[in-house]
Every structure is written in structure tokens, then in C-alpha cells.
């Protein structure tokens, strides 16, 4: 893992960026996958790991398995982008392509048949704990932090960061941010119960990493440890991407920029003092990046 | 200063990037300016510092002076970009605008009148030593490094990095890279004597930070500590900028991308094994960045 530094964003205020975009696969996902693999008992770990994912989690798990020298199978929908399949194979994983509806059953079957451990992208305590190291590093590097903003998709990153920050520094405000167009977590938070949005609704946002719903586990974390949920518009996300690139020289993907967008759009509800926005990833289509500059 | 991490560039080979683009002012210049201010005797330091610069050195020196709570005067040509003047003033410096030909005499006059120390952008041992910390960090973070590539403009960064690397690890190859269109250092290196190129010639390159000629001091450093000088085309610079943004999620300015361009274009003359390319800065016109994506 890269020990990502805090990067100043004076153009936005007393704001610092935590660029998880600089991790080897371009996203925070490596932290959780790595910690989940590291936490397996040795006799179980040697049998390898399996996951169903067509996104960053696939590459994160493949990367961790390669480092540990253990087998890794990634189940992907047969409609997955060839580039994502190739990138996962390049990290040494076996990629199994199935119809989109068969992904879960196929991954479970492989786990059972081969004695492999199924590592989900966010709904797992070891994965959440791994993401929490982002929070530990923020507290180490900026003791005077008043507020931490985290993007919310499935909620693994926000759960881990919020749990870590609140355990050590209950006085620090932790804010989750998501797109208005995938505002299931904000709605759940306000309603006090888990609300699932259909994928055809969340797929409207450009922030493709945040279209996922929370699980019961991550929702419970957010309710316990997160102070506030904010939402941002598509325009605010794109504006933030451009300002991050020009002002702090970092490439953020739309999902990664929502935390900064939330800071810029909602400063009046945030505590005064230094804030840290987690840039969750930087895997963006070049044409999208070019458009927002 | 940010302790910049090494960022993997597996898309290029066994290459790591040292992103000085992530320093507060977006360039390595802060290291040298800060070290020069820190090295002044206390009774001299309190009188403040002065420089003539319309570039990153102006902001670097203003930033360092502000941290030390001492006065700072920056002499700029009256044709300097308003954004650069504003950015320097925002860091607390007094900006004095003069005709382009009067910059040196005006800065010297201010130094004499006010008892301020003149801190040049690269032709100064303390400035060079400060830039050298980039080399120390590379050796700390990647002991198995075989080759370090550094952009060459005035030669301050390359002088410092090469001196630091060779002092500790004479087995590591240090390579300077510059644009073909501002190839004065490569020509000087080959000729064994300092060759100055007229500004109307070096101004053809997009790499605006590398249009400067070497000084006798930096040329002496390069001859002693640098193993090889390479040049790259304008197209190679732009290609490298795009690949750095997409592959390693970093915004590099053209001057910052020449080290990566040199690696991609000249791998056959470099030693096998891990290489580090220093990304000297990330202050790029958004329209230029959009074009290369």
C-alpha cells in the first residue's frame, strides 16, 4: 500500500485531500482486500480467494493474492469491459465469465468446490477494517482535523473510516457524501432504516463507484459512527473533478470527487477548522476528465 | 514540504514516479527555497529575502518566508501573468513590477537597500542542496533503484538529486532529461563546455520550466554527478503527460513529464532494474492537459 500523504487544497479552504487514487490499482479498495487476505488463517489462506466483481475490488483482490502467492478467482459478468478483464488477468487472477445473474451463485460454488474464501467488496468486517486505515492515517497526519468527508457507495470505506476516527477522536465530525442520483444512503440515514434504490435509478449518476446500495452491516456502521450524510449534484461532482486536477494536481474519478464536492457545496453545515476529503479513486475515462477541465 | 511517496507506473515498466507536483505550490521548488531560507543566519534571515522570478520560485520563496514570518519581495516583469502576481501576493509577498530588462538590477538594489538576502532560483548551493532531498527520499524508499531520471532546466533539481544520489549510492545511474527544443544541457554535456542557447530558441518547447540555461555551477554538478543526458520530442512529452494522468492518476506539467518521456523513449540505454522518474511539477494549463488526454 502507499502511505498516501495529505495534499493541500487551499483553493477550497482549510481543506486537505487524502488521495487514495495514488494506490497501485488507483483506489482505496486495495486496503480492504489486502487486510481481508492477511486476516485469513494460514491453512485457509493457502487455498486462495474468490470474489465476484467487475470493478476495482477485482483488481484489488488479485493484487493482494499475488503478493501472498495464493490462487485468486474473479467471477465477472460476460459483458464486463475487456480492459477490466485483461487488467485482472494481468495481476495473475483466473477470470471466470458468467451471465450477470449467475455471478453470486458461481462465486459461491467456486468457494465451496475449491475451498477458497469468498471476499466480498464491502460487506465484511476485515474489508471494512482495512479501509479504516485511511482514517488512522488522517489522524496521524493532521491531529487538528475537525471534519472528515468520505464518499459513500456500498459504505465499506465510510464504515471503516468513521469507525476508526470515532474510536480515537469522537470530537471529529465524520460526513458521508453521495450523489443525489444515488442518494440511497442519505435517504436511509434520514429514515432510520435501510432503503434500497433500484440499479436503474442509481445508474444515472456519473459516479459509477457509488451506485451500490448499503448492506445491513455498513448501514449499522453509518448510523453509529457517521454524523451527517450530504448529497451533491452531477454538476458539482464534475466541477470538483476539474478543480482537484488544476488546483491540487490530482486525477480524481467522479466517485472520488464527491467528498470535495460535498465540502464546497455544504460548508455552512460543516464545523469550522481543517477538513480532510478522501479521494477514493482516480480511475476515470480520459474523455470525462478532459471534459471537466 | 510533503514527503512525496513513490507511485507505481506499471504501464511503463519497472518505473516509479516521484510526484513533486504534490508539493503545496505544485513543484519541487519549495524544497530549495525553504532550505535556502532555513540556512540563513538568524540575524540575516530576519531582514527577509528577495528574488526575481515570474515562475514557481516566486511562490516557493514567498511560501517559505511566510512560514518563517520574515519579509519577502518578488521582482516580476510587468508583463507577468496577473494570476501569477496574485498567487504570489496571496502568499504574503510584496510584488515589485519592473520592465523585463530591469529585473536583476532591481532585485539587487532591493537586497542592498533593505539588507535582504537574494535567493536565486537555482544558482545557489543551499537551493541545490534543498532540491537534493528528493534524491535522499528516493534512496530511502526504493533501495533497489537502478536509475533515477530528472528533468533539466536551470539544472538545480538535477544537480541536487545527482549529488545526493551519487554521494550515497555511486552505483545508481542518474540521467538528466530535457526537451530537444531546449537541449542546451545535452549539448553542453556532449561538448564538455557550457553552451548557452538563446531564449528565442528554447521558447519553442511546451516545457516552459525547462527553457532556462545552466549556470557554471549547475553545469559543473551535472558533469561530475550525472551519467547521461537524454532529449525528448514535444510529442513524446505530451504522450507522457497523458499516460501519467490515466495510468498513475497524476497531473504532470510538460516540464514534469520529460523524465517519464525520457524513460519511455530511451529504455534501451538505461540499466535494467527499477527506475524512478522525478515529476518536477504539475502546474499546467487545463486546456493543454485536456488536449493530451
Structure description:
2 copies of one chain form a homodimer. With 293 residues, chain A is of the alpha/beta class. Chain A folds into 2 domains: 189 residues, Rossmann fold (3-Layer(aba) Sandwich); 68 residues, Rossmann fold (3-Layer(aba) Sandwich). Chain A is globular. The interface between A and B is medium-sized, with 29 and 29 residues.
Largest interface: A-B, 29 and 29 residues
Major sheet of chain A: order of its strands?
1-2-10-7-8-9
Q: Could you say which structural class the secondary elements and strand pairing of chain A correspond to? A: alpha/beta
SSE string of chain A, helix = H, strand = E? EEHHEHEHEHEHHEHEHHHEHHEH
The portion of residues assigned to helices of chain A is 40-55%
Rg of chain A (CA only) = 18 Å
Q: Please give the count of helices of chain A.
A: 14
CATH architecture name of the largest domain in chain A? 3-Layer(aba) Sandwich
Number of strands of chain A: 10
Question: What is the mean pLDDT of chain A?
Answer: 96
- Report the span from N to C terminus of chain A: 29 Å
For the sheet with most strands of chain A, the description reads: 6 strands, mixed
Task: Using the alpha-carbon principal axes, give the shape of chain A.
Answer: globular
Which stretches of chain A of 5+ consecutive residues score pLDDT under 50?
none
